[in-house]
Amino acid sequence: MSETRDSRTSPVQSVDRAVTVLEVLAELGEGGVTEIAQRLEVHKSTAFRLVTALESRGLVEQVGDRGKYRLGMAVVRLAGAVADRLDVTRRARPACEELAVTTGETVNVALADGDSALNVDQVRGSSSVVAHNWIGERTPLHATASGKVLMAFCPPVRAAGTAGRLRRFTAATTTRRRDLEEALDKIAVDGSAATSEELEVGLNAVAAPVRGPDGEVVAAISVSGPSYRLTADRLGEVTAAVVAAAEQASAALGWRA
């Protein structure tokens, strides 16, 4: 690659390369500009510019005067933001495990992530012989019980979830904004949300909010299962169990009603 062509890389490519630098240093522990340039397949001058930019933000730092670089302390700050999310998962886990035993169904913990709900933990119940692994998947806010809970109790999430077109996934998906807004208002009063085949045909779910120490809703716990098992008649029983589990998880996070 010529230096002239290299200097004309797009902002997106530059960002990708900067992230790769961080990944390389995470793998190696420390590395020099020559080594980084080789891994990125770019000129040393390009690698140096990337490292210098990252160093100015504290994301990498020099190791003494040996010409080596390692990840900087700013990475710890960014990781801390993720750790806060992981703390929700860790503290909610006992409640989720108990809920999975009580209901026999799949239990998930979801967080708001832009206009989606991000599933960060899952516990399979005894009835879930074959269950979909939702961990790491983003699901639409308007078509899931967890997403509706997050929207109902978090105004910024609600704004994000109702900003664009509401995509239809099944015949039961709520696609009219007015209908969704009314449903969210009701969820905020009831303290839980239920969906029947709105994301997938044959899949029902119930969710309730998990609160942090300040009372802000930080996550949603849900129980999902096939509609032939998680029937309308059973939803009331399951909803009570989900709400109780969410309250247990909230208490573990320091919230006191």
TrEMBL record:
SUPFAM superfamilies to which the protein is assigned, alphabetical: GAF domain-like, Winged helix' DNA-binding domain
InterPro entries, A to Z: GAF-like_dom_sf (IPR029016), HTH_MetabolicPath_Reg (IPR050707), Tscrpt_reg_IclR_C (IPR014757), Tscrpt_reg_IclR_N (IPR005471), WH-like_DNA-bd_sf (IPR036388), WH_DNA-bd_sf (IPR036390)
Protein name: IclR family transcriptional regulator
Domain of life the protein comes from: Bacteria
Keyword Repeat attached: no
One protein family per Pfam: HTH_IclR
Domain IclR-ED positions: 74-255
Keyword terms: DNA-binding, Transcription, Transcription regulation
Keyword Cytoplasm: no
SMART domains named among the record's database cross-references: HTH_ICLR
Annotated ranges, domain HTH iclR-type: 12-73
